Amino acid sequence: MYDRILVPTDGSEGVERAICHALDLAEAHGATIHAIYVVNTASYAGLPMESSWDGIDEMLRSDAEAALEDVRRLADERGVSVEAAVVDGSPSREIVSYAEREGCDLIVMGTHGRGGIDRLLLGSVAEKVVRGSNVPVLTVHVADEAPGQPA
Fold first, then answer.
1. DSSP label at 68?
2. Which backbone phi and psi does 93 adopt, to 5 degrees?
3. Which positions, given as ranges, span the membrane (predicted)?
4. Which residues pair with 88 in a beta bridge?
5. 113-150: per-residue pLDDT in tens?
6. What is the pLDDT of residues 28-83, one digit of tens each?
7. Which of 7, 86, 96, 107 is deepest in the core (most CB within 10 A)?
8. Domains of the chain: total
9. CATH number of the domain that 56 lies in?
10. How far is it, in rounded angstroms, from Cα 105 to Cα 99?
11. What is the rounded CA–CA span in Å between residue 141 and residue 38?
12. Where do runs of H (alpha helix) occur along the chain?
């Protein structure tokens, strides 16, 4: 049923739950995981020109590689193959574009499940992906709490 499963990651602690869910599906279906990290360059557009963009870019790329390495490690433990990519742009737009371009069968992504004013003020990448994707999207609730705290 699934051959290529896309898993967006931002490297946060909670996203591991979504990654593990995607890996469970990949194991069951013999699928390949496509892990993507989107460097949200739009959110850094307002930085003063004096800012060292090279230093910021280097830090963001380092974070991206660390997040993708976590996916590779978890996949290796289960014998699931992984293709990984770092892309620049708007997270929701890039996730949808990647899934369609690479022929992914499913997108599995974490969501904080915020509602009301939080969602209005913060927006929801997951919601935008669900609304904009022709590829089915499975959202997995990830907790905002610190590790060891009840969800």
1. H
2. -65, -45
3. none
4. 39
5. 666 655 554 458 888 999 999 999 999 988 755 444 44
6. 999 999 999 999 876 666 666 555 566 777 888 899 999 999 999 999 999 999 99
7. 7
8. 1
9. 3.40.50.620
10. 8
11. 20
12. 15-29, 53-78, 91-101, 116-122, 125-132
